[in-house]
From TrEMBL:
Keyword entries, A-Z: Amino-acid biosynthesis, Isomerase, Methionine biosynthesis
Native species: Caenispirillum bisanense
The name this protein goes by in its record: Methylthioribose-1-phosphate isomerase
Gene: mtnA
Keyword Membrane tagged: no
Name of the top EC class for this enzyme: isomerase
Length: 370
């Protein structure tokens, strides 16, 4: 995608052997990049959410492994890097997937060959992510076009999304936003309702910023408005991303997604989930029981950062002193509330049979590993 007209990815290697990322904690008020010079830098970037979004977390972890191998390519260092990076975020399965991929690539190699192989594999994971997400956009475009034609190709196509599942959550294109960009570029008059997505406001700060950069019409709304809009016929479809999807189609996404799915179900609004195949956890079947839900610091709820009229970036506390804050980062939407899953291989029902039909190779490999 483009930043001020310049094609940009969210992560890229530098000529000096370091890795550059966009510091997403500084958006939307400042576009700043940060250099990762060590595996520990990568771990901190994931843990502190300088990078976020399941695919980008995986890509950053892969480059974290490459940075580790540059410094020490021993067996002990390889395992230590894996373990350190694995511990950064518990919910997004792409982290586990990318680290397992790097281990499979590097373990059989002699230490002298690991650094070069790690850099090559990390770059390939990033390139694959871009191709996967663009394919998701192409398949999602068909759903958008059908919804537009159902409206008689008049007015605007109103889409509601939650959190940020755009190019900032991936290496490029995004998952849930990829079809939006494709539809906009194809001339469909798409308009996006952007949930603010408290407490970190990824919708208001990241999704809105992305859509601005691409010129897509949108409106930022508070998280509890979506149901009202659906009741009044102001949402034609919902589309969100996912950090982990079970083999049976349960979806774990940013907190608040479940409530949007319930509202969509009650009002007959299609609720789509866009996901790359590495986000499917083939080893689990019950999202409510088996997916670990990250609980983050209460300060994310009680402290809000913004820009003053004078242009200063300040943090202010919005809760009473002494009031504790709970901060669950994700919730699980049962498959029965998901209209369809949009993947790089096509669109399928949110069922075991639907996923296995698109990904028979992955389903068979998972079954063989049990």
């Amino acid at each position: 995608m483009k930043v001020n007209g310049t094609p940009t990815r969210t992560i890229w290697p530098n000529a000096d052997g370091s890795v550059e990322i966009i510091d997403q904690t500084r958006l939307p008020h400042a576009f700043v990049t940060t250099t990762l010079r060590s595996m520990e830098d990568a771990a901190v970037a994931i843990k502190d959410m300088l990078v976020r979004g399941a695919p980008l977390i995986g890509a950053t972890a892969a480059y974290g492994m490459a940075l580790a191998m540059r410094d020490d390519a021993s067996d002990a260092a390889l395992q230590a890097a894996h373990d350190r990076l694995y511990a950064t975020r518990p919910t997004a399965v792409n982290l586990r997937w990318a680290l397992a991929d790097m281990l499979r690539t590097l373990r059989p190699l002699p230490a002298a060959e690991r650094a070069a192989a790690a850099w090559a594999r990390a770059a390939a994971i990033c390139d694959d992510d871009v191709a996967i997400n663009e394919a998701i956009g192409d398949h999602g475009l068909g759903l958008f076009r059908a919804a537009w034609e159902k409206k008689g190709a008049t007015g605007r196509l109103n889409v509601l999304t939650h959190c940020n599942a755009g190019w900032l959550a991936t290496v490029d294109w995004g998952t849930a936003l990829a079809p939006i960009y494709k539809a906009h570029d194809a001339g469909i008059p798409v308009h996006v309702w952007v949930d603010e997505t408290r407490p970190r406001s990824q919708g208001a700060s990241l999704t809105a910023w992305e859509l601005n950069q691409h010129g897509v019409p949108h409106t930022v709304i508070v998280d509890n408005v979506g149901g009202h809009l659906m009741q009044h016929g102001m949402v034609d479809l919902c589309i969100v991303g996912t950090d982990r999807t079970t083999a049976t189609g349960d979806v774990c996404n940013k907190i608040g997604t479940y409530l949007k799915a319930l509202a969509a179900h009650d009002n007959g609004v299609p609720f789509y989930v866009a996901l790359p195949s590495p986000t499917v956890d083939w080893s689990i079947s019950d999202g409510l029981k088996e997916i670990p839900i990250e609980e983050r610091a209460g300060e994310e709820v009680s402290v809000v950062t913004g820009r003053t009229a004078a242009g200063d970036i300040v943090a202010v506390t919005v809760t009473p002193e002494g009031s504790p804050c709970g901060n669950w980062g994700f919730d699980v939407t049962p498959a029965r509330y998901v209209t369809a899953l949009v993947t790089e291989r096509g669109v399928c029902p949110a069922t075991r049979e639907g996923l296995a039909g698109l990904f028979p190779d992955l389903a068979a490999a998972a079954a063989a590993a049990e």
